[in-house]
Write a structure and sequence with these properties.
alpha+beta; two-stranded antiparallel sheet; 4 helices; about 10% strand; globular
Amino acid sequence: MTYVVTDNCIKCKYTDCVEVCPVDCFYEGENMLVIHPDECIDCGVCEPECPADAIKPDTEGGMEKWLQVNLEHAKTWPNITQKKEAPDDAKEFDGQEGKFEKYFSAAPGTGD
């Protein structure tokens, strides 16, 4: 098992989760974070820290797509270990449906 970041992170990009990760397995894209599944130690401390409820165990149904998205982009996006301010409009996007199709960006973020 590993944890994955799902589409509700897109355009919300809260970073509360990165500060509690004991193995620094979060990577930053332009408008979301991902977890490197090969680095995640399955401790689960990040899941309750996410205000957008975007972190899920890959054992939940329907997580196959998110496991692939996390793995693919963790290989090219920069590592992030420190909390940053969330986008000003994060609350407006929290819970919106279809965010991956509408807003996902494969561009890397800035990392630490």
